[in-house]
Amino acid sequence: MERKWWHDKVAYQIYPKSFMDSNGDGIGDLKGIISKLDYLKELGVDIVWLSPIYQSPLADEGYDISDYYAIDPRFGTMEDMEELIAEAKKRDMTILMDLVVNHCSDEHEWFRKACEDPDGKYGGFFYLRDKDPEGKLPTNWRSYFGGPCWEELPGTDKLYMHVFHKKQPDLNWENPALREEVYKNIRWWMEKGIGGFRIDAIINIKKPAVLHDYPADRDDGLSSVNNMLAEAEGIGEFLGEMRDKAFAPYDAFTVGEVFNEKEEDLPLFIGDGGYFSTMFDFSSELYGRSDKGWFDTKRIDIDAYRGCMFGAHEKIGDIGFYSTIIENHDEPRGASRYLTPEMRTEAGKKALATVYFLRRGLPFIYQGQEIGMENKEIRTVEELDDISSIDAYQVAIRAGISKERALETLTFFSRDNARTPMQWSGAEHAGFTAGDPWLLENANYKRINVEEQLKRDDSVLAYYKKLIALRKDPAYKETLVYGDFVPVKDCAHNVIAYFRKTDEQTILVAANFGSDSIAISLPADEKISFSETKTLLTNGEDARIEDGVLRLSGQQAAVVLLGR
Fold it and tell me: DSSP code of 377?
């Protein structure tokens, strides 16, 4: 694997609307982000990914873009963006933008012109079909946010495709003119000085050659759009062209949001010379999903998470680097998803951080994760902002699920959990805004916040700083960044353990998520001495290894350098 500048870095995702509000209007903004760059630098962050800040009606919170060349006034100005890029560079930090090009907004100029002349140039930028006289839709695909993937094109006798919200018409990547517009925009932003892009929902850009129905999988008569993705072939033609024309000339760092990739195509995506620098490992986020809806999804536990993690590393091998996460703007809080209420202590959160962060790959931290932010209780559907959560609630009710259980499901899975304001302090509205926040903060902000944790050496925040410093330590960086990932497969219930190995060094990473002490038998290796060990990091007492047996107390995590 060719070594890249970003391999030993640490990335941090900011959801701008909820990060820091500088002007009291209740919405986070670019000046707010600038004011917190020193906080991120002190944490140890090198790469900062911004969720969309482009001009948008915010039907899907910025993932519906009406102008790819403009900053939405709610977030600031282009001058603010240029200042952010410059101030980040002063701190040796790189800014990533969110590239959202499977679809645009129905308020984009391209779409407006398509409505005016559906048979003209811009009509060809979208998937348009003639209306059927009897009302039959071109396909029975269900959009990700519920309902059919087809909507009337205003003022015409045609329909347009949207696999997400109806205000997010899909762009027709089969059209070379559309692709050139995308590449032009990428190059424009790279010239602004950003380091690259996180690439949204990119697997959706390729549709089957012939659009057709699939067997219905719910009583709405529609079928999951995933069936279309499974059939579509040839996406590499588009992704390779985008790499060559827009990314490669700038050595752009790119991380793909890729679901449903074919396993044999993995080297093409993130191998040497791949379409992207890296892609997220979503194996645990996809665990237990059901076509019936969120209410039927099997919830993950530590043992299942371990299986997902080990399986992902077996799949990728030495092909390239995953980007590793436990939460993001589209997922609930990791502490609430993976940890039972009994495990959801500071010790448990540190244990979870340890095993995810020191895997082989580029670790991403989502805002607030570093202080152990948790899901909020959702008491009524009226509290919801997220369109996918509203649809999930309605799907559950139509399936006969009680309101109480439907709301409990949302408390566990809703995207709003990750979008509540960043908890900076115990002051009103968690120190996020002097006004009324666009989305109500989590009620636990007086207990979980940055200001309080900065005062303690034993806080979750302090532990994340230690994790980052350890991964960057020249004495261990070669092993923790590039070393082999060797799982301890015969782990007990609620235990995760693995080795990071090079020819010169072996480091053990282990965590006991249970409440009782446990002994972990480590596999024998003639190159390793268990009698000579050094605890590099732990959330408890120094780890003890006797006769090849590691002993950990309840909820203890340990990173141990083994002798040779």
Answer: P
Any idea what DSSP says for residue 170?
B
Residue tagged active-site, from 64, 98, 170, 200: 200
Tell which residue, 51, 29, 13, has the closest CA to residue 432: 29
Q: Quote the CA–CA distance of 393 and 395 in Å, as a whole number.
A: 5
Q: What residue segments make up the domains of the chain, in order of their start?
A: 11-101+177-461, 109-161, 481-563
200 as an active site residue: the answer is: yes
Q: Render pLDDT for 93-109 as a digit per residue (tens, 0 to 9).
A: 999 999 999 999 999 99
CATH number of 481-563: 2.60.40.1180
- The 10s digit of each residue's pLDDT in 426-479 is 999 999 999 999 999 999 999 999 999 999 999 999 999 999 999 999 999 999
Task: List the one residue out of 459, 443, 422 whose CA is nearest residue 345.
Answer: 459
532 class by beta-carbon count within 10 Å (0-12 exposed, 13-18 middle, 19+ buried): exposed
Which listed residue (72, 98, 257, 416) is catalytic?
257
- Residue 72 designated active-site: no
Asked if residue 199 lies in contact with residue 102, where contact means CB atoms within 8 angstroms, the answer is no
Distance CA 273, CA 277 (A): 8
Between 3.90.400.10, 1.10.510.10, 3.30.365.10, 1.10.3720.10, what CATH number should domain 109-161 receive? 3.90.400.10
